[in-house]
Amino acid sequence: MLRLLDCVTGDIFECNTSVPIDSGRFALLEKASLGALGVWPEGTLLFDDGRGQIVVSNILLRFNTVKTDSMLLAKRQLAFDALENIKLSFDKLDTDHLVSPVIPAEIAKSLEPTELQIALNRVLSLGHLQAIAKAPRITMRYDEELLPVSRVKRTANNYQRHLAAHSECWQQRTFIGIVPSKLRAKISEDEVHIYENRVFARLLDHLERFLRTLIAQVKQLNEAMRQGLDLEGSSSLHRSLRHSVCETWGESFKDNEAEQLKQYSEHQLISLEEQLRKILQLKQTETYRCIPRDAAVSLVLKNTNILHNDPHYIQVRQLWELWVKEIEFVSRDYQQIFKKAQFHVECYRDFIGLLLLRSHKKLGWTISNRSKKNWVLTHPCGIEGQLYFRDGNWHLLCKNAGFDKKVLFVPLINASQDIEAVCGRILCCLNWKGDAEGIINCSPEDLFSEELMIVVIQRWWSNIFASEYGEVVSNLPQTILEQWPKLHASGVFYAQTNEGFNIYAWIDNFQLAPTNKDAVLRRYFAAEALKFCPCCGVKTIGSNLVPRSGKGFKASCELCSATWQIRSNGSLWVFEIGSNIKVEKAGRWQQTINLFF
After folding, report:
1. Could you give the CA distance from residue 302 to residue 287 in angstroms, rounded to a whole number?
2. Coil, helix or strand for 592?
3. How many other β-carbons are positioned within 10 Å of the β-carbon of residue 355?
4. CA distances from 390 to 53, 109, 358, 409, 440 (A)
5. What pLDDT was estimated at residue 179?
6. Which of 77, 177, 543, 565 has its CA 20 to 30 A from that of 6?
7. How far apart are the C-alpha atoms of 323 and 120, rounded to whole Å?
8. Could you count the other beta carbons within 10 Å of the beta carbon of residue 499?
9. E-state strands within 201-243
10. Which residues is 164 bridged to in the sheet?
11. Under a CB-based contact definition with an 8 Å cutoff, are residues 512 and 477 in contact?
12. What is the mean predicted confidence (pLDDT) over 248-267?
């Protein structure tokens, strides 16, 4: 029985070879041979390379077939192009200047015309393909048919044998011989269905698909540019969210680069659509319709005289060769396709790491690099978190200040729409559509991916702090309760101004059991953390923090104008951020967490 790792759930999956698996969901538990793809190490994700199946240690596995439309494929390709560019900057990571996670300006290179595009534009403008469609090379085809004698112009080679065997074709029989009424005749017709015209017809099919793919990709880029440029005037966004997203967008595009790229993409779109219109017109001609749709042509053309000497068909051959060069990677090399998928996984994992670092930084945390893909995150109140990459996932944890919490962020570039959230795991999916807690869409072409990640991180940390806030530390010795800080009720810490108080120096005066010491530290640092803005990390001061009955309070931030509070709704305590916000999207500036104790 073949055992694989289910990357979504983190469980070991025992494969039933009769049941197809999802591409990109399962990983090798140990080094294994993947048939023609070679030997791959532990942790390798299994992707469909176009054949619909894969061999793992001599066991054949089949993949679920997923139909994707051209626009979704174009969206994924745009995301992959952006991820490759972002990875180059992430490899040279500077924690003081983290690269923007939205589409980079370098994506403009993907719009540069390829050799095939340049040649196609030239050939169409000179009319070579139109000339073939109007006056194709032909050959004479001779068919044999039984005709009345008066209509016969050229008899078939076997007409005498046929006449001798078919008396119904005789008009009369005389002493001299037979007078025929019908004869087997040769009929000549112009034959368009020759090899060179088959090449012409199939080239039109290939060029149509090629242009439709390009048009879809340019449309997606153009749409992303439009959304970015329309951000500033959006009335459905909270002002702070709009400012944050525009700031992130501005890190990628400066000095009117976005507007220039949008105009360039629109120009390219017009040009490509004009070329597609001409190709579709050629496919309506009699020459194309004379070639059967199932008349296939191999990728390597035959060296015929027409293809090498006719001035119009020479252009057909050259366009065909450029098309083969353009699609050769996708069409033929399964190993390269598989390697490219692994590279895209690596790019996406780095992208999720970048989002995690930038999200913490925007929430006011400071970042220090411990080692490769291992960082220490420090909250302004002194709480430390750790972010590191291991076994294909990003691990975020807090193991100081009395806390012991952990969550995993799982990068998935292929995620089906019916996946379900898993406790303790945040599924980060590329081009995922849905609304489920524990699953977020993270893509460079989605302008709100960073904000979605910020919301998830903010919610995770806020839940940790708010759940501990204002809770009485039980089972403490009387000696420590008698020397409890005067600004707080005995055994409890509240979000109050107590400058100069050193919790570690104070608690070391008492011989507490480790569990009690951790409980005291958790309550203290929870109160400290809630004095800082959960949206930007700035500490609230003076009258901006108003205590209420019980452990309730309300605070506001002078920098980003965020408000947050803990209040009772009669049955339980609730932690809220921006409860009065009415706009459609508020991002991190609006949260509600029910606190269960």
Report:
1. 20
2. strand
3. 27
4. 28, 33, 19, 11, 20
5. 79
6. 77
7. 10
8. 4
9. none
10. none
11. yes
12. 86
